[in-house]
Amino acid sequence: MVEKLNQLASSLLNNWAIEVQNIELIQGGQMAIVWKLATDRGPLCLKRIHRPEKKALFSIYAQNYLAKKGSRVPGIISNKEGGLYTKQGPFLFVVYDWIVGRPFDLTVQEDQEWIMKGLAQYHRDSIGYQPPEGVPVFTKLGQWPKHYIKRCQQMESWKLIAENMPDDPFSQLYLSEIDHHIEFGRDVLKKLQASYYPEWVAKCKIAPGLCHQDYGTGNTLLSDNNIWIIDLDTTTFDLPIRDLRKVIIPLMGDQGEWDQVLFNTMLRAYEQVSPLTGEQKKVMFTDMLFPYELYETANEKYGRKNDLPLEELVQALEYEQKKSEQINGLIAGL
């Protein structure tokens, strides 16, 4: 398989004016395929983007926009025809600069601060991007209410599966607790709709910025005291705070508890580069109230059909309770 994929890369690279000395498969399988290239231009990356073409084009042109603007994302190497990508079959292939650096360790405060400052700079740099004519816009602006409703409906539907597993301790606990959390999720939706969210969305539609959607230690590197973002495949237009929630809340959930010191460190570092208003913070805190970690735990059990121990659900329920108490305190303090 490795030899076959390397042969594919060698064939594809005829589309670029690059002298390649060596091809090394870094990531294979069903997801994105990544090769590291030793070339006359230094190390480069060849990547097969595992996204529908329309969404892939949006992210490719976004990355090119950011790189040319001076943002710390890998530059795209044009092919012989001057294009940013080469298409083969249903897939798009792109050649990028290869960034050499170290990954971040989010147990270290300095790295927590670095990674949040990099996210804030990404958000600031992205304002002004518009895909070229003919490239569909990929946006989630204004779609949060639909996401809340869908998740609540799924948590409701999973009760039917749990009822068919009467001897399963996980399902017994799920059935005894989930109605409260579904109702809580619906209440969060009402709070979101009554907040600054609709007005903020309307303003962002006029001058949208990018939300990375998959920001974290796997897609960032520290190089020469600069943070680089190396994977933009899922980027979309949305409120920047979506990324903050998707970074901070799972990190807290993995720890199984709410760490207010960690939360303050990460938010403070972000705001050193891109401050948030009180209204914007209230929208972010409201979104963070939604029982995302409980939903993900239930989805692992009933959606992906993986066998989870009872302790996983107990931990998720305890975390949601602690999180709710802390965040409601933050909202009250605004």
What report would you give on this structure?
The model has no long low-confidence stretch (mean pLDDT 96). By secondary structure, the protein is an alpha+beta fold. Strands 1, 2, 3, 4, 5 and 6 form a six-stranded antiparallel beta sheet that branches. A two-stranded antiparallel sheet has the order 7-10. α5 (169-193) runs parallel beside α11 (310-332), α7 packs across α9 and α10 runs antiparallel to α11 (310-332). 53% of the residues lie in helices and 14% in strands. It contains eleven helices and ten strands. The protein folds into two domains: 2-97, Phosphorylase Kinase, domain 1 (2-Layer Sandwich); 109-332, Alpha-Beta Complex (Aminoglycoside 3'-phosphotransferase, Chain: A, domain 2).
Concise structural overview:
53% of the residues lie in helices and 14% in strands. The protein has 2 domains: 2-97, 2-Layer Sandwich (Phosphorylase Kinase, domain 1), CATH 3.30.200; 109-332, Aminoglycoside phosphotransferase (APH), C-terminal lobe (Aminoglycoside 3'-phosphotransferase, Chain: A, domain 2).
